[in-house]
Write a structure and sequence with these properties.
The protein has about 210 residues and is mostly helical. The chain has a single domain (about 1-205), classed as Hypothetical protein af1432 (Orthogonal Bundle), CATH 1.10.3210.10. It contains 10 helices and 2 strands; from the N terminus they run αββααααααααα. The protein has helices at about 1-10, 30-45, 55-65, 70, 80-105, 105-115, 120-140, 155-160, 160-165, 170-195; strands spanning about 20, 30. α2 packs antiparallel against α3 and α7 runs parallel beside α10 (about 170-195). The chain starts with a helix and ends in a 15-residue tail after the last helix.
C-alpha cells in the first residue's frame, strides 16, 4: 500500500508541472492537462485511423508518456540544445527507474520502453498526438503574441515547417486535422496580429 500511495503522490505533481504553452484563458498548460487532451483526441480519432490500434494501450501511453516530468520537470522545446537533451534524457531515465521501482509493474515498464522505441502503431500515434496538442493550443490560446516571444519565433517556424507536417503523414486523418488547425491559426495571425504566416517559412512554401 505504501508504494501505491507514494506513486499517487508522485503522479499528482504532474498537475503542478507547467509547460510554456498557454491555454484559452491565458493560464499555462499543466503537463497533466496536456496528457488528458491527448487521450481525448485519441478516443475521438480512433474511428478514422487507417491502422487499427489497441486503444487501451494508447490511453496508457497518453497517461504515462510524460509522467517522468513529475520528477525531472518539463524543459521547453526551444531550450533543448544538444547538452540539455542529454541531461534531460538522463534525468528522465532515472525518473522512470524510480516510477517502476514504486509500482513493480511490468506492463507499466513496457509502456515506457514502447513509447521510447516509436515502433508500434500505438506509440507512433501517441507521439503524433503529443505534437498535435501543442498545435491545438496555437489555435485556441487567448493571446497569440506570446508564442513569438520564444527564441526568434521558434515555435511559429516549427509549426509552419514541412518537417513538422511530416509528423502526421502516416495517418491521413492526422494530416487533415493538422491542416485545419494550421489554417485557423494562420487566420488568427492575420486577423489579430496582421502577420502573414509565410514570413515564418519563406515565399517558396506559400502553398503549403
Amino acid at each position: 500500500m505504501k508504494n501505491l500511495v507514494d506513486f499517487f503522490t508522485l503522479a499528482e505533481k504532474l498537475e503542478c508541472e507547467y509547460r510554456s504553452t498557454r491555454m484559452s484563458d491565458g493560464t499555462q498548460q499543466s503537463v497533466a492537462s496536456h496528457s488528458w487532451n491527448m487521450a481525448m483526441m485519441a478516443i475521438v480519432l480512433q474511428p478514422y485511423l487507417k491502422t487499427p490500434v489497441d486503444m487501451e494501450k494508447v490511453l496508457k501511453l497518453c497517461a504515462l508518456h510524460d509522467l517522468p516530468e513529475a520528477i525531472a520537470h518539463d524543459i521547453p522545446l526551444h531550450m533543448q540544445d544538444k547538452e540539455v537533451c542529454i541531461q534531460k534524457r538522463e534525468q528522465e531515465n532515472r525518473a522512470v527507474i524510480k516510477i517502476i521501482g514504486l509500482l513493480k509493474d511490468k506492463e507499466v515498464a513496457k509502456c515506457f520502453t514502447e513509447y521510447d522505441a516509436r515502433v508500434s502503431p500505438e506509440s507512433k500515434l501517441v507521439k503524433a498526438l503529443d505534437s498535435l496538442d501543442a498545435c491545438v493550443q496555437h489555435m485556441c490560446v487567448k493571446d497569440l503574441s506570446y508564442i513569438s516571444s520564444f527564441k526568434d519565433n521558434f515555435y511559429w517556424k516549427l509549426f509552419f515547417s514541412d518537417d513538422f507536417a511530416k509528423k502526421f503523414d502516416f495517418e491521413p486523418i492526422l494530416t487533415n486535422v493538422f491542416k485545419e488547425i494550421k489554417l485557423r491559426a494562420s487566420e488568427r495571425l492575420k486577423n489579430e496580429l496582421g502577420i502573414d504566416f509565410r514570413c515564418f517559412i519563406g515565399v517558396e512554401n506559400e502553398n503549403s
